[in-house]
Amino acid sequence: MIQVKYKKNFDVGRMLRNVRASAAVLLNDVAVPVKEGWDKEIKEDSHLGLRASTQKVHGDHKPLNLTGKLAKSNKILKASTKKLKAVVKNSAKSSKNYKIKKPNGKIYRGKRKSAPVFYGYYQNKGFTTASNSLIPNKRVPARNFVDKTLDNLEKNPKYIKAKQKFAKNLEKSMKMASK
Fold first, then answer.
1. Helix or strand holding residue 100 (H, E)
2. Treating both helix axes as pointing N-terminal to C-terminal, what angle do 157-177 and 12-46 enclose, rounded to 10 degrees?
């Protein structure tokens, strides 16, 4: 009778480092299609045009989503091996100064008393204008660009490729850890 013994040792520390590196790459690869989806949803929403009521308020000045500032402010904070968290965020803020041109040609300028407001959050969730605003107590509908992107993520070819790349990197890290 023949007996064969097979032993394999693992360097657990090396394996964990390699797994963390693979996970960081996966998170960064997944963040790219999420950001692109946000950009696409915001751009599609901006092509709908301005309603008459919005044109009266803004005059010649275009609102944030039509100027492209909202989409351009989507940023990716990349994951690293020490911080396994990739963040896609929208950093568009209002400024302290404002300028509104009315249809009659009169321009209103001033400074806001409140701190800058993050437009992306309010665009995504919807809001009601303040009682002392130019258009008081008006319900502004949500322009949800986050959930649509996450619902379509699994169909995105970049997401599928990122998952395959992660599986390959994980397999490679397991082989590298064995002695």
1. strand 97-101
2. 170
**Closest-CA residue to 40 (of 124, 156, 149):** 149
Q: What gap in Å lies between CA 123 and CA 109, rounded to an integer?
A: 23
| pTM score | 0.68
Taking 80 as the threshold, does the pLDDT of residue 95 lie above it? no
What is the rounded distance in angstroms from the CA atom of residue 109 to the CA atom of residue 152? 42
d(CA 156, CA 168): 19
Q: Higher pLDDT residue, 78 or 3?
A: 78
Which sign does the torsion angle of CA 19, 21, 24, 28 carry?
negative
Phi, psi at 133, each rounded to 5°: -85, 175
| Residue (of 171, 166, 176) closest to 25 by Cα position | 166
Residue pLDDT, tens place only, 22-49:
999 999 999 999 898 888 877 776 545 5
